[in-house]
Amino acid sequence: MKHGVVAHRYARALLACAEEQAALKPVGEDLRQLAAWFAQVADLRRAVENPRVTSAEKRVVLARLAERMSCQPLTRTFVDLLVDKGRLGYLPAIAATYRDLADQRLGQLRLELRSSSALEPTAIEQIRAALARRTGKFVVIDSGIEPELLGGVVARVGDTVYDSSLRSHLRRLGRSALTH
Amino acid sequence: MSRRRLALMWSAALGLLLLPALALASEAGVHATGINWWATDPHQPALGWLLVDFAIFVALLVAFARRPLREFVRTRALGIRRAIEEAAAQRAAAERTAAELAQRLTDLDRELKALREDIVRSGERERAQLQADAERTAERMQREVGQQTESELARVKDELHAESMRRAIEVAEQTLRARLTAADHQRLNRQFVDAFTGSQGVLPS
How much is the ipTM here? Predict the structure, then answer.
């Protein structure tokens, strides 16, 4: 259980509700965006984690954010619930768990691609097609740019990672030099 | 004391009280010269009555006080004898105690001497033990210091090595960042795509 018991419990409950409302994907997208906001906006993260900020204040802030993002009503209700239960800090983990569970439910495979420079769309499509051919599943590509990789690509499917980045090569080289 | 004897004693006491009165009553008729034996004379007491009085007193004393006196003397003698015996026993006990004490003093001297010798011996043993311990501790500390120095040297060497490696990696990263062109990035991406999609690729099954 990669993201913890609490996150798994909340994600599973939300998934069940989203399935009932036929909003599996939109809710997942809402969670992804909210988690991205949490990751990128430090002030928001600090405000949410600050015990001096009351639940009502947190709810107002998050309601505005959800409105701006045009979140699903279920997502807004869920965020309110997290505020009430004091579990808002688990939102990124819940989003990740929800994504994994939703992928399983939809029978799709998610491939995370990280590269130091943008991959060409044809390259992404080639990768997706190759993976779909090999696994027989519908493949969802989640791509992003990470300049810290220096060069090359890191691909992650579930727990399997293929790392061809120059950063990893250099670090492996350094470790190898230290052990010999 | 029986009732009869008590009555006799009271009677004797009354008689003794009355006798001088009788003597005084008869003094009027007696005016003879010389020893006044029986007449009552205020200037010259009757010697005969005095003697009789004294004899009665002695008889009463003998009659009533003889036994208690004898008993008192006997018990007193017994008490004295017992006291003497007790004193003798106490003296004997004191002598024994004194002898024991003297013996103990003698033994004490011997024990003190033995104890002193023991202390000296154990002190010498302890000193030797302490010296041996100190020598062992010194040797161990010397060994440990040597080992610590060696391990510290090795640690510093490792740290230096790691630090130099970290610096080298940093420099390499900076160099790569500076020198890698867009074409290089595209080539690297292409290599990954080829490896990922190729027949000998790394795809998860």
Answer: 0.72
